[in-house]
């Protein structure tokens, strides 16, 4: 996608768009950097429209948090372009970038106990971004703190409390209020409920949905939990080993997904109305320091063959507009997950059917910027 394509098909400029974005880290072993590279994000193309909720699913280490950090401008890509309202974020002067991304985006992290400064009161935590960005007079900032507390349902008496004196749910409400302090266009929530008690998770999710509607926010919602993501989102992307492998309207991400990995993820979701066995994935789990050639999922995929080892497929369109996937052998439209469980159990691991001497087509050449 070129910078021009930061304009969406409706002719409006996307809120944020990524074009062939890569993030490569130096690998660390026991706290020390090694010569290896970690391919955390590879060739990400994505755009987000104002007011839209985008869900991001995938298992641990697939690059969800890296993508989230790229979207809020705290992670500089090793290569590729990030455009905010059509302007290349990393071509801006640092002060302009900070002003743009720092005030137009907010981020909510997984664990509010570590994300909030334990020595500051709720009032100080919420005032901090207003002070840094010099928003209004001191009296207006105090008023804004009161507004923010009301917005997220925190009683005023907690203003002088420290994070350690609050419950987990209250702490996450403070983190949400802080993310909203500067009236951002985009909020990225990275596993915002996974550190919370089950009893308060639904309250926080409902609060996020409510705030998104009331404030017209774009929301990026990152989670392992495909069912929750489906409920929260308009559109969902599935990531595997640093790659976006499927993008679909939220209603199609479960049993209408076309990528075998998305279906495997769905089959492993606990609490389905009609429980199924998970699709068995018996092959080796590849490492982000040595991604396999071709499709990164091919070592565990029951459908993979030599074509999958040779080349990463381009995106293909599914029947529903906005649904696309990268797979040489997609799941047939309408095929049930139950059928796939049986198919995978019969075919076994793809690894034994693929020659292992195919040369890798990644790592990509990351000459643009060293990590
Ligand atoms: N600063 C870093 N230095 C080195 N490697 C990193 C760094 N940050 C992330 N990684 C690696 O990049 C890959 C992607 O990490 P990321 O945190 O984005 O995954 P994730 O999908 O969010 O995982 P989780 O669900 O466990 O949070 C992983 O292999 C991770 O170990």
In a nutshell, what does this entry contain?
The chain is 30% helix and 20% strand. With 371 residues, the chain is α/β, with parallel strands linked by helices. This is Putative D,D-dipeptide transport ATP-binding protein DdpF.
Describe it for me?
The chain is an alpha/beta fold and 371 residues long. It folds into 2 domains: 3-233, P-loop containing nucleotide triphosphate hydrolases (Rossmann fold, 3-Layer(aba) Sandwich); 249-353, no CATH class. Helices cover 30% and strands 20% of the residues. It contains 11 helices and 12 strands. Helix 6 packs parallel to helix 7 (198-215) and helix 9 (260-267) crosses helix 11 (337-347). The longest helix is centred in the middle third of the chain and has 18 residues, at 198-215. Adenosine-5'-triphosphate (ATP) is lined by residues 25, 28, 38, 40, 58, 60-66, 288.
Number of helices: 11
Which structural class do the helices and strands define?
alpha/beta
The quaternary organization reads as single chain
Task: Provide the low-confidence segments as ranges.
Answer: 1-5, 355-371
> How do the SSEs run, as a string of H and E?
EEEHEEHEHHHHEHEHEEHHEEH
Heteromolecules bound: adenosine-5'-triphosphate
Proportion of beta-strand residues: 15-25%
Q: Which strand order do you get reading across the main beta sheet?
A: 6-7-8-3-9-10-12-11
Helix content: 25-40%
Mean pLDDT: 88
Q: State the end-to-end CA separation.
A: 23 Å
* CATH C-level class of the largest domain: Alpha Beta
Q: Tell me what the CATH architecture of the largest domain is.
A: 3-Layer(aba) Sandwich
Spatial shape: globular
Radius of gyration of CA atoms, rounded to a whole number: 22 Å
How many distinct domains? 2
Largest sheet: 8 strands, mixed
The counted number of beta strands is 12
Named CATH topology of the largest domain: Rossmann fold
GO molecular function: ATP binding; ATP hydrolysis activity
Family: Belongs to the ABC transporter superfamily.
Domain ABC transporter: 16-266
Keywords: ATP-binding, Nucleotide-binding, Transport
